[in-house]
Design a protein that fits this description.
Strand order of the largest sheet: 1-8-2-3-4-5-12-11-10-9
Number of strands: 12
Shape: globular
Largest sheet: 10 strands, antiparallel, barrel
């Protein structure tokens, strides 16, 4: 029996649909927090390398229907925007958090939300906690002059001051600095429709195109133009990586997918090298972590990075979560990401 896999696509939508009250799955912008009171701070989201807070990348609303303690459940992925922190096959620039709530909780009504713009607009994070005006995580300080704008760290305070706050400080106007964040999209989830191919055509030119992408540092994004839909059989022969062949064949029919969700299954690896031998157990309850979903390289195309060649990149980000989905005492509990890259060495094997 083949796996039942859900795949996610980035789609534009009205911003109000991506607020916490609607339990969204989303990409970019600020996080839509589930627990509105105990949101993460800089210590929980600090990059291992530069020590600055990682920026929100995406979140998936993924409740455990069979578990009352996880009636609402969301997984969050953050990444450091500093290109120097994006190290090959290393996950120190990535943070994953899990939050969950019972159906009866102090933030949301027990009935499903009504998809209307003016429905329960009182469900906002600012009512429960002070949030950084730049990135949306817990703020430990505020502007010393106007005392109205909050920041999670000094770096974000300086960033806000240089990009407009100094001109409105003390007035009723608030600074909005969205350029620092990734563009915001709804993450639309659909069931994968995959039929194995009977044959594969050959094309030396398409293989050459892929080699050029690797050499220029753009292979991680696996751009979806037709000339990048490579000759998979020829590529596998030249690169000697059957795993990449399998990856490309599987995503070819839906090349814009940015997420693959398969809780309890296995990642669709992009390379035969740097696959995990062991995933660390949950740090709260000691239960094993299981694969839940992966972030695909196609998502990079939607981030509108200024310098693609010298920026963050990945092959896949495989996200693992506590199999027991234990109750997080810290409200936002750390989970695990495995980062697997495409390297230039692939084509010289």
């Amino acid at each position: 029996m083949k796996d039942i896999i859900d795949i996610g696509f980035a789609e534009e939508c009205e911003p109000w649909r991506l607020e916490s009250r609607f339990f969204p799955s989303k990409i970019g912008g600020k996080p839509a927090w589930l627990d509105l009171q105990n949101i993460p701070n800089t210590e929980q989201l600090q990059c291992n390398y530069c020590k600055n807070p990682c920026i929100f990348l995406c979140q998936i609303y993924a409740p455990y229907e069979e578990d009352p303690k996880a009636f609402h459940r969301t997984i969050y992925v953050f990444i450091c925007k500093n290109p120097d922190c994006c190290k090959e096959n290393s996950n120190g620039n990535i943070k994953v958090l899990r939050s969950q709530l019972q159906r009866s909780n102090k933030f949301y009504p027990p009935d499903p939300p009504i998809e209307e713009k003016n429905w329960r607009t009182d469900i906002i994070c600012d009512k429960w906690s002070k949030n950084c005006t730049i990135c949306g995580i817990y703020s430990s300080s505020h502007c010393g002059k106007c005392k109205k704008v909050n920041y999670c760290c000094r770096m974000h305070q300086i960033l806000d001051w240089k990009n407009g706050h100094k001109d409105v400080c003390g007035s009723e106007n608030s600074t909005i600095y969205s350029q620092f964040l990734f563009p915001e999209y709804e993450l639309v989830i659909e069931r994968e429709r995959y039929e194995p191919e009977n044959k594969t055509d050959t094309s030396e030119q398409e293989m050459k195109t892929f080699q050029n992408l690797i050499e220029s540092g753009q292979a991680g994004s696996l751009q979806t133009e037709k000339n990048v839909d490579s000759d998979l059989l020829q590529m596998a022969s030249e690169i000697e990586d059957k795993t990449f062949l399998k990856f490309q064949k599987r995503v070819k029919s839906e090349p814009d997918q940015v997420i693959r969700y398969n809780r309890g299954g296995s990642p669709l690896y992009i390379s035969s090298s740097h696959q995990p031998a062991e995933i660390p157990n949950c740090e709260i309850c000691g239960e094993i972590r299981q694969f839940e979903f992966q972030v695909m390289p196609q998502l990079i195309n939607y981030l509108k990075l200024e310098d693609v060649l010298n920026s963050i990149d990945w092959g896949i980000l495989a996200i693992y979560t506590c199999k027991n989905s234990c109750i997080p005492q810290s409200k936002y509990v750390k989970e695990f990401a495995w980062k697997q890259d495409i390297t230039k060495e692939i084509i010289t094997q």
